[in-house]
Each structure stands twice: as C-alpha cells, then as structure tokens.
C-alpha cells in the first residue's frame, strides 16, 4: 500500500480527530449527566393537604450525582420553609440575592428541600382541619411524600439518603426518621436510608428551657436577680411538663422568653452576640395575655420569612416554578401551621432518638456555640438521658478538634463520635449553623455522609 504525503497527513488528522472525540466523549460521560438539573412538584399527602418539594441534583465536577448522597433538609418553626430559608439562606446553590453560594452543599450532595408540615412555605391546605397537630401526622405525611418521590425518582433509591435538620426540624427529623426506617424495613419505601443529623434541635424542650438561665448567666447576660427570675419560670415549665400539661408548658415557654428579653435588653435567641427587636413590657403584657402563640410565631417563624426572602419567593421564584396555585402565597399559612402544633411543642422525643440508635441508624447531633433557643448545654443534658447501651463509652471519649481551613490554626469545631452516634460542637455559630459557619457546616456534612 502506497501513501503519498497528502494521504499521510490526512490520516494523521483523522487519527488526531478520533482521539480528541474519544477524549471529549469520555469527559462527557464522566461528568454528571444531570448537572444543574432541578425538579419540583406537589404531593397530595392527605385530603386537602398538599406538600411541595424541590430537588437539586448534585453538581460535583468530578462525580456523577449517583455517586453522591441525597440530603433532605428540614427547617424549623414549625412553619419555617425549607425551600425558602434553608435553600436561599443556608445551603442551596444561590443566596437570597440569587448569587452563587461558595459553600453550597450541592457540591457534595443532591439536595431535597421539603416544605413541611403542610401549610409551610409553598405547601398548603384547602381546609383548616387539614393542618397537622402532632408529630405523628407530620411523619405520616412525609411517608406519603417520600414514597411518591422515590417511586418516581428511582435513580435515588440506592444512593445514601440522609435527613439533615434545624431547630424544630430536628424534632420532625427524629420522628420522620423512625417511621422511614420502619417503612424501609417493611419494603413500602425503597431507599438507602443512612442517617439523621439533628442541628440545634428541639428534641427536649425542657432541657433547653432549664439551661437558658445558667447559660446566659455564664455569658454575663444575666445577673443574680435575672437568673432567679428565669429559673423560677423554668421550674414552672418543669412542673407543667411533669404533669403532662403541654399547652400550659407552651404558655410558660413564652413567659420564659419574655422574662429573658426583659432581663437581657433583648438578647437574640438565635445568636447571643446580637440583639432582637426590643419589645416594651406593655407590649409583652398585652401580647402575652391575648395570644402567646402569635408572639411565639412572630419570633420563631416570622424570623425565617423576612421581607426580602418573602419578596424573592413570592416574586421571581414563584414565576420560575409555575405550579403554585394562584390563591396561595409562600408563607401565607405559616402562622396557622405553628398555632395548630401547640400541644406538640413541649413534648420531648428523646425516646425516639434512642430507638434510632438501637436500630443502628447513624445519629448526628450538632449545635452552634452561640445559640440560645436550643443552647448546647440543653443538648448535652438530654444526650445524657439516652438509654442507648453504648452511651457510657461515648461519654468516656475525648473530643477532637476540627478545622474548616487546613491551613489555618483556628479551631472551627469539636467532635466526638462512637459507633453510630456523633456530636459536633460548632464554634462561632448561632442557631443557623450553615448561615454562620458555612465552611464548617459543609465539612461536617461531608464527614457525616462519609465523604471525608
């Protein structure tokens, strides 16, 4: 076979072209096939009850989304929106100015935001009787949603699935986690459920309230007289819960917050180094006698849907989603969600955490150093009440320092872990850990999901 110079050059060009195309195809194959993909929808969880979810596929430059975990994020309140606050203020790909978030969890996991209980965020009810009134209903509704989700998105049935949460979302995560474990064991839901992470979580309201006074006193935010006043109300909460008078305990919880605000010059319950909007004693007295629930809702739900975020969700985001009913607005039913859960607020779920541990599920507890509403002292107190047989060995361990920046000597957190229980103490963070310490929160998520 004779080839002239032109033929040889042509052959070389063809070979180079084939090599380039092969390389490019390989690069495409190795990239996530769902990069940047988002999907969202409603699920009818009960008659007149519609729950909204929003999924982002992981966008890691080196791994396909199927090689990374799926994380569901649950917000607090109850009534705080996961698709709003959790997404745009904490861990989603964009911040509330629609600018890329450097510490988004999307680089290490696919993210599923769910507005629950029904009536939260873009979720809604068509009948006031359809609001959830207890944790059992919240968990039952979520089972309907998760079954629908995993049946429709089979690509996620085998990837590790974790529930991360914050505040009251942690209480819901515990209850949901236990029911999901049972559903997986029974085969009614197909997913690779791998654990729960309880962030600044309302697991034992009593332990939180009892620790408020000592914590504030140790931080020079209460003096002797103020400590005595806070402790007196805390003892009343103790008595009410001991007698299973949970509505009364909720009223006393509101009273305890009032006493703290008056004695601390308005300390912010979400970060003790900042202040909340001052409230006069007259206003407090009026609001407390008329509706302690509305006051609590104003503090713990309204905070999660401030004006700028509300405008974003009810403006550009609503237009993007295109499926929100015309008569519904983001956050429009949030106060009703909060009020309807009144009898559930002060009930502890320590026993549920025990069941999760006994089932062998990974349970992670993490808490911000500067949080008050669910301060670290209170978290440590209820952990000591666990009946998990391995707890003594967990307690005997020394914690380990963590650094979000390997080149910095500044400690970012401490962690203690034994078998399927881990506790993270996040430094310089308040109630919303990912908002305050984004780098450390991202590192923690990777550690929890066994990526580091």
UniProtKB/TrEMBL annotation:
<keyword id="KW-0645">Protease</keyword>
<dbReference type="GO" id="GO:0005576">
    <property type="term" value="C:extracellular region"/>
</dbReference>
<keyword id="KW-0121">Carboxypeptidase</keyword>
<dbReference type="InterPro" id="IPR029058">
    <property type="entry name" value="AB_hydrolase_fold"/>
</dbReference>
<comment type="function">
    <text>May be involved in vascular wall and kidney homeostasis.</text>
</comment>
<keyword id="KW-0964">Secreted</keyword>
<keyword id="KW-0325">Glycoprotein</keyword>
<dbReference type="InterPro" id="IPR018202">
    <property type="entry name" value="Ser_caboxypep_ser_AS"/>
</dbReference>
<protein>
    <recommendedName>
        <fullName>Carboxypeptidase</fullName>
        <ecNumber>3.4.16.-</ecNumber>
    </recommendedName>
</protein>
<dbReference type="GO" id="GO:0097746">
    <property type="term" value="P:blood vessel diameter maintenance"/>
</dbReference>
<dbReference type="GO" id="GO:0045776">
    <property type="term" value="P:negative regulation of blood pressure"/>
</dbReference>
<keyword id="KW-0378">Hydrolase</keyword>
<dbReference type="GO" id="GO:0004185">
    <property type="term" value="F:serine-type carboxypeptidase activity"/>
</dbReference>
<comment type="similarity">
    <text>Belongs to the peptidase S10 family.</text>
</comment>
<dbReference type="Pfam" id="PF00450">
    <property type="entry name" value="Peptidase_S10"/>
</dbReference>
<keyword id="KW-0732">Signal</keyword>
<dbReference type="GO" id="GO:0006508">
    <property type="term" value="P:proteolysis"/>
</dbReference>
<dbReference type="InterPro" id="IPR001563">
    <property type="entry name" value="Peptidase_S10"/>
</dbReference>
């Amino acid at each position: 076979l004779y080839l002239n110079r032109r033929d040889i050059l042509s052959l070389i060009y063809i070979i180079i072209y084939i090599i380039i195309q092969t390389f490019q195809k390989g690069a495409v194959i190795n990239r996530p096939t769902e990069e940047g993909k988002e999907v969202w929808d409603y699920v009818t969880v009960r008659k007149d009850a519609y729950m909204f979810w929003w999924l982002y596929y992981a966008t890691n430059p080196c791994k396909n989304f199927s090689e990374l975990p799926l994380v569901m994020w649950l917000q607090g309140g109850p009534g705080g929106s996961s698709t709003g606050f959790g997404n745009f203020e904490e861990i989603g790909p964009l911040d509330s100015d629609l600018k890329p978030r450097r510490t988004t969890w999307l680089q290490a996991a696919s993210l599923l935001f769910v507005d629950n209980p029904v009536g939260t965020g873009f979720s809604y009810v068509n009948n006031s009787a359809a609001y959830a009134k207890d944790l059992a209903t919240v968990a039952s509704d979520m089972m309907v949603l998760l079954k629908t989700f995993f049946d429709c998105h089979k690509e996620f049935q085998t990837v590790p699935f974790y529930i991360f949460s914050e505040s009251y979302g942690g209480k819901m995560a515990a209850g949901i986690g236990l029911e999901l474990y049972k559903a997986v064991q029974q085969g009614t839901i197909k997913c690779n459920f791998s654990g729960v992470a309880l962030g600044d979580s309302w697991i034992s309201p009593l332990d939180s309230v009892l620790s408020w006074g000592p914590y504030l006193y140790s931080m020079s935010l209460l003096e002797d007289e103020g400590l005595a006043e806070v402790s007196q109300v805390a003892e009343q909460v103790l008595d009410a819960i001991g007698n299973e008078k949970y509505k009364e305990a909720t009223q006393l919880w509101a009273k305890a917050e009032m006493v703290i605000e008056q004695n601390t010059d308005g300390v912010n319950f979400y970060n003790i180094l900042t202040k909340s909007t001052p409230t006069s004693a007259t206003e407090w007295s009026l609001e407390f006698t008329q509706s302690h629930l509305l006051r609590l809702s104003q503090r713990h739900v309204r905070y999660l849907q401030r004006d700028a975020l509300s405008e974003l969700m009810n403006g550009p985001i609503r237009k993007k989603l295109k499926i929100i009913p015309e008569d519904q607005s983001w956050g429009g039913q949030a106060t009703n969600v909060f009020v309807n859960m009144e009898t559930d607020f002060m009930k502890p779920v320590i026993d549920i955490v025990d069941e999760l541990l006994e089932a062998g599920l990974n349970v992670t507890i993490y808490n911000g150093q500067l949080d008050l509403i669910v301060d670290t002292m209170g978290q440590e107190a209820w952990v000591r009440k666990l009946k998990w047989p391995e707890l003594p060995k967990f307690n005997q361990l020394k914690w380990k320092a963590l650094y979000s920046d390997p080149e910095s000597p500044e400690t970012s957190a401490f962690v203690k872990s034994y078998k399927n229980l881990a506790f993270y103490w996040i430094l310089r963070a308040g109630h919303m850990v990912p908002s305050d310490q984004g780098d450390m929160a991202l590192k923690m998520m990777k550690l929890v999901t066994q990526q580091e």
